[in-house]
Amino acid sequence: MSASLSLEGRKLILGVCGSIAAYKAAELTRLLKKAGAEVQVLMTAGATRFIAPLTLGTLSGRDVPIEIFPDTPAMGWTRHVELGLWADLFVVAPATADTIAKLAHGACDSMLTATALSARCPILVCPAMDHDMFLHPATTANLATLRDYGYRIMPPEHGPLASGLIGQGRLPEPEQILKRILGELQPASLPDLAGKHVLVTAGPTREAIDPVRFLSNHSTGTMGYALADAASRAGARVTLVSGPTALQPPHGVTFVGVESAAEMADAVLSRSDADLVIMAAAVADYTPAERSDTKVKKADGDLSIALRRTIDILATLGAQKRPDQILVGFALETDHGIEHAQGKLARKNLDWIVLNDMTEPGAGFGTGTNKVTLLARDGRQEALPLMPKPQVAAAILRRIA
Ligand code: CTP
User: Fold this and answer.
1) Which pTM value belongs to this model?
2) Residue 254 β-bridge partners
3) Per-residue pLDDT at 4 exceeds 70
4) Is any atom of ligand 1 closer than 6 Å to the C-beta of 285?
5) Whole-angstrom Cα distance, residue 271 to residue 334?
6) Comparing C-alpha atoms, which of 206, 243, 217, 241 is closest to residue 227?
7) Which residue from 344, 348, 375 has its CB within 8 A of the most atoms of ligand 1, so it is best to mutate?
8) Is residue 313 within 6 Å of ligand 1 at its C-beta?
9) How confident is the model at residue 5 (pLDDT cuts 50, 70, 90)?
10) Parallel, antiparallel, or unpaired: how do β-strands 237-242 and 197-202 relate?
């Protein structure tokens, strides 16, 4: 197998459902292992009627969980979460109409569906079923829902089906699925940013009310961390200034952890010589006018907290921008997105703004995917499709560079 077909070091979950095509999962597991991948097979109970867990367990070299409930208490309850975080790609092949319906509606009645619901990696669904089941409006709608959630769908092939009918519903051959998997895991191409200093901000800020309470927002930092990682892999020297998140700083990045908007302002403005500044952080616009040194005790009646504006870091950078410096802002909007984003682009003297529409499924806080529109200073606009955040990050860097 050539180097370009290598899955060395890649972690894959193969979800197998109860379809006659389940027999192809054995060959697919073998091909994935041969390409160097670590493969964790998950089967639905229905799949075990078609192919033995022992077959797929032996080929993958791992146990094959079926039920979400562990066989023994010692096996623990959080396996679906651990697997969801572990995998680089989750492939459901064959995916039956039943499992597709469950995935589309967020059901989690098996290890397969529960892991899919907690997975942060891309999920590739390969439907296999009879022609009429595939074309039924319910299946069509469920697949459309999955697409909206960012799932990738590999359509079934046309040909003779197990029922004796001829139509669309055949699971593609394992070699074809392997090819598609290789495409999904292809690292997104990155521009050359060697010699550039890229400053990225990420995460929320916390504005202290007293020693135990703060004002903040739902930002998880994922998009900013993906940008810092992509910029670093593109060869840039990267500084990541981040508010509190649960994420590990990407490899090779200089990390500056901050809490408040004021601290973020200090950290960014003292590094404003960067060639490219990407402000992906959700910086608080207001902070308590006074921070109590002791815990505020409750009293009868309501409480008001006076807030004052924080410094607008990006607008400050915009006001002192060098001609060769590129400033990128983010705008998270719920309505009139383009209008608001254009306003911010002009007001803050930015080169680009990345518009996040919170109302789009799969976009916004706490998702592994994002759907953004890029707006440039010269009026250009480009709506990118729904993609995993690392690919969105690569696409943003390619446009900017
Ligand atoms: N930003 C900043 N400093 C702040 C607030 C925001 O640098 N004090 C940056 C953010 O990192 C982001 C962009 O400005 O890149 C967002 O613009 P902003 O007008 O602050 O948007 P919102 O905070 O969403 O405010 P609004 O209520 O006006 O929508």
Assistant:
1) 0.69
2) 239
3) no
4) yes
5) 32
6) 241
7) 344
8) yes
9) low
10) parallel
Stretch (H or E) spanning 166: strand 166-170
Pocket of ligand 1 contains residue 331 by CB under 6 Å: yes
Alpha-carbon gap, residue 347 to 260, rounded angstroms:
23
SS3 content of the chain, % helix, strand, coil (to 5): 35, 25, 40
Q: Other C-beta atoms within 10 Å of 130: how many?
A: 19
For 286, the token pair is 């207001």
Burial 267-282 (b: 16+ CB within 10 A, else e): bbeeebebbbbbbbbb
Count of residues in the chain: 401
Question: 332: CA distance to ligand 1 center in Å?
Answer: 8
Which tokens in the block code for residue 149?
């959630």
Distance CA 304, CA 309 (A): 16
Q: 250: cis peptide before it, omega within 30°? A: no
- Annotated active-site residue 217? The verdict is yes
Tell me: pLDDT of 8 over 90. Answer: no
The count of other CB atoms within 10 Å of the CB of residue 127 is 29
